[in-house]
Amino acid sequence: MSSGPSAVTDRPDAPGAPVGTVNIFDPHPLNWLFITWNTMEEPVRTDHEGYTVMALADTAVWRDDKTLEVKVRRGTVFQDGEPCTAGSIKQNFDEVQRWAAPHPPGTYLNFHPDAMCVVEDEDTAVFHFPVPDGLALGKFRGFHIASSSFWATHGFGYKKTGSGEGHW
Predict the structure, then answer these.
(1) How is 95-132 classified by DSSP, letter by letter?
(2) How high is the mean pLDDT of the chain?
(3) Does residue 35 lie within any of the structural domains?
């Protein structure tokens, strides 16, 4: 992600226009992790000493023991030029919450199935948990944010069935 202006264009002959396909072959069973961690951003990261630091999120503040307010860093855009907003956070949260096992390497990274994300304004996503979740910020380290075009076309390795409604 970048906070600078986008170079995306609809003209395939324009300088800097996306072209071609990147094909990657890596038999390592955690290959998907390396690709995801290097092509998507998370609300938070960990620094070299293991502390949680803000990344895509500008701030993350607990309003009470079951409500977490996340402010998205302003000016952030996806690789396709789409702005990243609180709506982007909600869309990614809602999509992943539909999966039976969002984080197979560790179910401790899954949010409670009854957790909800509400967009309060363009910059503010509010997470409501049914029970206190002291690991929520740590779970954000594995919560990858993609543009809406990603969900419309890829679905994180899953294909939509039918008319686009229903299950992945």
Answers:
(1) HHHTSS-S-TT-GGGSPPTT-EEEEEETTEEEEE-SS-
(2) 80
(3) no
